[in-house]
Design a protein that fits this description.
This protein is mainly α. It is built from five helices and two strands, in the order αααββαα.
């Protein structure tokens, strides 16, 4: 249990370090923040991840990992869209100065049907993945 917990923390720390490098080299080279400001996420840009409130659909991780060729790094995905190994982190970088975290609210049946059609998924499958965001009972 301790090894897994340590691996998870190291993966998250590395993801934060990569985000810092991206900010400094790509979109916020002038930025200089204290440790407290960094911990409080008082910097330019965000790093949302699939499965979290801003991107609740875990299935989009498949698209991201495919585009990145993640299998070459030994990163895969289970049938329930969990990444393997367990201490794997994926996400997106948005460097716009006004980028802020947000939560996707409740979605209606019409939105689910439209989303399912665009993704090529069954409505029931999309309802399963977005269950906590549904404004109705499937």
């Amino acid at each position: 249990i301790m090894v897994r917990a340590l691996a998870d923390r190291l993966a998250e720390a590395f993801a934060e370090r990569l985000h810092e490098i991206a900010r400094r080299e790509w979109y916020a080279p002038e930025e200089s923040r204290s440790e407290d400001e960094l911990i409080g996420e008082q910097f330019r840009g965000i790093r949302p991840a699939y499965g979290y409130p801003a991107c609740p659909d875990h299935s989009e991780k498949l698209t991201l990992l495919t585009l990145l060729g993640a299998e070459r790094a030994g990163v895969g995905m289970t049938e329930s869209f969990a990444t393997t190994p367990a201490a794997s982190v994926s996400g997106l970088y948005f460097g716009h100065p006004q980028a802020r975290y947000f939560s996707v609210g409740r979605v209606g049946k019409d939105q689910v049907v439209d989303y399912a059609q665009r993704k090529g998924f069954d409505v029931a499958e999309v309802e399963r993945w977005l269950r906590v965001n549904l404004s109705y009972e499937p």
